[in-house]
Amino acid sequence: MSDRAVRVLPAGRAALLVECDGLDEVLALHDALAGSAPDGVVELVPAARTLLVALDPARLPLESAENWVRRTARDRGSIDDGRAGAPGGAGAPPAGASSAADDRMADAVIEVDYRGEDLLDLAAVLDVTPEHLVARHVAAHWRVAFIGFAPGFGYLVADDWPFDVPRLDVARTRVPPGAVGLAGAFSGAYPRESPGGWRLIGRTDAVLWDPAADPPAALLPGRGVRFREATR
């Protein structure tokens, strides 16, 4: 990633908004920044084409933070890409992080009952058997690319996921909590009831959003995720 590939903009007095060419650039820069974060970085918040760098300006002035971001973007080619599951990579906390932070970023294992209402139709659309679709979903090593749409809703991506899944022509007005779905290159699980146009392939009882927990979201950006077929 060259310095020209990112655009760094102030976002108020305590944050920078980094615009990238696409999600791959966002994830790569997120990993590089997470692995070299200086004192004063409060949070890194990735999205599909942007990365918000939240700061404590009393410890890290905006100008210094911008220089760090631009330098990291220029040097990223010499930094471990940190794809999901690689040591020191996706979502890895900076050196010296607590064991609690390590636990938060360890792979989440989500058990799924793969009897979603769109499973059979989607398998036909993709020209595979339902069993093959489920097997590929379970075998993939997913990663939380970013949080969006609803609190705790993680957009998951995987390098070893081969399908581009079309959304429903007409979105549902009600998707139950725990529904596991696919759309485009993403997978995800609905943390609470909401509308949605993703193809539903299963359901989980995992608690994905708990306002009383710290952090409230079970799936933090950068965290690895494994799906496991639940025993019926």
Question: What is the topological layout?
Answer:
Layout: E1 7-10, E2 15-19, H1 23-34, E3 41-46, E4 50-55, H2 62-75, H3 99-105, E5 108-112, H4 119-126, H5 130-139, E6 142-147, E7 154-157, E8 172-175, E9 179-183, E10 186-189, E11 194-196, E12 199-203, E13 224-229
Parallel strand pairs: 5-13
Antiparallel strand pairs: 1-2, 2-4, 3-4, 6-7, 6-13, 8-11, 9-10, 9-12
**CATH topology assignment of the largest domain:** Cyclophilin
Note the overall shape. elongated
Structural class: alpha+beta
Strands of the biggest beta sheet: in what spatial order? 1-2-4-3
Count helical runs: 5
Q: Provide the CATH architecture of the largest domain.
A: Beta Barrel
Distance between the termini: 46 Å
Taking all residues together, what is the mean pLDDT?
87
Task: Specify the CATH homologous superfamily of the largest domain.
Answer: Cyclophilin-like
Cα-atom radius of gyration = 18 Å
Helix proportion range:
10-25%
At the first level of CATH, the class of the largest domain is Mainly Beta
Protein described:
Residues 76-100 are annotated as: Disordered. It comes from Agromyces tropicus. The chain folds into 2 domains: 3-79, Gyrase A, domain 2; 102-229, Cyclophilin, CATH 2.40.100. The protein is built from 5 helices and 13 strands. It has a 4-stranded antiparallel sheet, with helices on one face. It has a 4-stranded mixed sheet with strand order 5-13-6-7. The longest helix is centred in the first third of the chain and has 14 residues, at 62-75. With 232 residues, it is an alpha+beta fold. A hairpin with a 6-residue loop joins strand 6 and strand 7. The termini are far apart.
